Structure to design on (213 residues):
């Protein structure tokens, strides 16, 4: 697993592109500049790893394009020590970004193939989330709730109620909602029963799947 000067140079170009596209959070940009995204991809995609594109990672899933990762990460308002629940571990790239931001990360993946791979892979790069969970993202992870932030990395047809309930007061849920195309939605918990909702731009994610058993 090599991370060369060439790769670092390509990451710097990617960071410059993300700035032009409106990403302003310097901590997020620094995280993107540090993480070797090419190592999260199949070798056949290595030459394209630092393009602002999504790529397949197996199990009919994708690694989100860097802009989407940076955009969602910026919305979370993470500070060092924030407890964050990620729905959809995937390749582990977004998980690594959250770790770089100083979050205490809990991450759920329902695809066993990806879960097994990521559990072994992230520690090799020095990333140690608090807990990686094989399970149903629609249910969240009540065991460690409440969370300062919850990030959903796949398109959901609706907002799962357990995720809203697992937010701390003042916590934020970032979730793309929709079928073919999604609207990025931000829910901020104002009190035990009150949430503030904000709708942002359109995005396109792979669907958030639910375990039926």
């Amino acid at each position: 697993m090599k991370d060369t000067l060439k790769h670092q140079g390509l990451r710097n170009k990617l960071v410059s592109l993300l700035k032009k596209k409106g990403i302003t959070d310097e901590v997020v940009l620094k995280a993107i500049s540090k993480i070797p995204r090419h190592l999260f991809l199949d070798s056949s995609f290595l030459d394209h790893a630092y393009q602002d594109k999504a790529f397949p990672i197996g199990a009919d899933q994708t690694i989100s394009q860097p802009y989407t990762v940076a955009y969602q990460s910026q919305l979370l308002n993470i500070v060092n020590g924030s407890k964050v629940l990620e729905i959809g571990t995937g390749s582990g790239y977004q998980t690594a970004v959250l770790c770089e931001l100083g979050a205490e990360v809990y991450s759920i993946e329902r695809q066993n193939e990806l879960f097994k791979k990521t559990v072994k892979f992230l520690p090799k790069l020095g990333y140690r989330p608090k807990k990686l969970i094989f399970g149903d993202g629609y249910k969240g992870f009540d065991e460690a709730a409440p969370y300062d932030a919850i990030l959903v990395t796949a398109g959901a047809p609706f907002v799962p109620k357990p995720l809203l309930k697992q937010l701390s007061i003042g916590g934020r849920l970032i979730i793309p909602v929709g079928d073919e195309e999604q609207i990025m939605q931000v829910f901020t918990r104002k009190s035990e029963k009150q949430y503030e909702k904000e709708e942002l731009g359109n995005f396109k994610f792979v669907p958030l799947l639910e375990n039926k058993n």
Notes: Helices lie at 5-20, 26-34, 66-75, 93-100, 112-124, 161-165. The mean pLDDT is 89. DSSP finds six helices and nine strands in the chain.
